[in-house]
Specification:
- The chain has helices spanning 18-41, 45-48, 53-63, 75-86, 93-118, 130-137, 151-166, 170-181, 187-199, 205-234, 239-242, 253-258, 272-294, 296-307, 318-322, 326-336, 341-363.
- The protein has a domain at 23-247 and 340-363.
- It is globular, with a radius of gyration of 20 Å.
- It contains 17 helices and no strands.
- By secondary structure, it is mainly α.
- It is 65% helix and 0% strand.
- This is Glycosyltransferase RgtA/B/C/D-like domain-containing protein.
- Keywords: Membrane, Transmembrane, Transmembrane helix.
- It comes from Corallococcus exercitus.
- The chain crosses the membrane at residues 20-39, 67-87, 94-111, 131-146, 176-197, 209-229, 270-290, 297-313.
Length: 369
């Protein structure tokens, strides 16, 4: 069976309780690993949960925006601030954020499996096999889905937006798209995919243009709201883009291309972790194309999410960027389910190993994204 052909004649995905078993396994694995690392290396738990971008979100919750934290969009830290305030305002932000993200991940599993049972729809929105869920939940940086990061929230919102759009529910889809835009830069790609999903349900081109236009207007209104927020708080509506200059970026198309073989000025010597991210990016590209051949809207979302990393000069954030792309992960896992047993379990062991190493890297403050 080829990559582009997979049996999809079942009316209901055959996953049973696998998503719940796997998500519990992942949570026990990751939190157990962090507890062990905290004890063995004498790292305070609160410090372990506050690495890299998690620390930036904690700063936003406690102190508000300042340069260069404008690069982080407001919905996630705002929600953490609100939940923390409701709980008395004394809990560490990283604890509140971890609890919130874990709840979002569990909410995604519940919503996804419920819709898959009740209203089977687009391939890619739900996994058809337990292997689809395994590949998604054991993606390299899946720890970000249940820790103090935006990923858990964005996963829940983006799935809701795409699922509602695919089922013709324009108002909830538009609201969820707006929330995605306030959460991550990838929210704009969710808006495009949701508009296409809503439009392609209609038989006539006129109705398709109307639906696409309605969804597009809603997304444009949300983006305008984001610009107003940025302007009101910083005096510059594009401050969230300008602040990203504090991180590595290229200034030419050639810089973006040569980053694929680590040819930019900041690349020094051999870096096995960057090579692994390129391998992950290549697999991502393959299954994004497979997804494109089955569903143009979801495939475009996956491809845009990959291409947007190129201006950074390499795929140094590929693990984290890819962890929210459940359509790609589901399709990859469902394809893996059709492979020989030896191949399946070899890939499974490699995924668990890589996931374990990346999750541990976050705990000890090595680059995990």
């Amino acid at each position: 069976m080829g990559l582009s052909s997979q049996a999809t004649d079942e009316s209901h995905p055959r996953v049973g309780y696998a998503p719940w078993v796997l998500v519990v396994l992942v949570l026990v694995h990751h939190f157990g690993l962090w507890a062990w690392t905290s004890w063995r290396r004498d790292i305070p738990v609160l410090l372990l949960l506050d690495r890299w971008d998690s620390h930036h979100y904690s700063t936003l919750v406690l102190d508000g925006y300042s340069w260069p934290l404008w690069a982080f969009l407001p919905l996630y830290p705002g929600l953490v601030w609100l939940v923390r305030l409701a709980l008395g305002g004394t809990l560490p932000p990283q604890v509140v954020g971890t609890a919130l993200s874990t709840a979002c991940l569990l909410g995604f599993v519940a919503w996804n499996t419920h819709l898959a049972r009740q209203e089977p729809g687009h391939e890619g929105l739900s996994a058809r096999t337990p292997w689809g869920w395994f590949v998604f939940l054991y993606g390299p940086a899946s720890f970000a889905l249940h820790s103090h990061h935006t990923e858990g929230l964005f996963l829940l919102l983006s799935f809701g937006a795409l699922a509602c759009a695919a089922r013709g529910r324009l108002l909830p889809a538009a609201v969820l798209v707006a929330l995605c835009i306030f959460t991550r830069n990838q929210g704009c790609f969710v808006a495009i995919a949701a508009a296409l999903l809503a439009a392609m349900r209609e038989p006539s081109w006129r109705e398709r243009f109307v639906r696409f236009g309605l969804m597009g207007c809603g997304a444009l209104l949300a983006f305008t709201g984001l610009l107003v927020f940025e302007w009101s708080r910083s005096g510059d509506p594009f401050m969230f883009l300008k602040a990203q200059r504090e991180w590595n970026h290229v200034d030419s198309v050639w810089g973006a291309i040569r980053g694929l073989w680590f040819g930019n000025p900041w690349h020094r010597g051999f870096n096995g972790w960057l090579v692994l991210r390129n391998v992950f990016g290549a697999v991502w590209l393959v299954f994004a194309v497979v997804l494109w051949r089955r569903d143009r809207a979801l495939g475009l979302y996956a491809l845009l999410s990959l291409l947007v990393m190129l201006p950074q000069g390499d795929l140094g954030n590929a693990f984290r960027f890819g962890t929210v792309l459940f359509p790609v992960m589901f399709v990859a896992g469902d394809w893996l389910a059709t492979r020989p047993v030896a191949m399946r379990w070899t890939v499974a062991l490699l995924l668990v190993w890589l996931n374990h190493k990346v999750t541990h890297a976050y705990a000890i403050a090595k680059w995990p994204y």
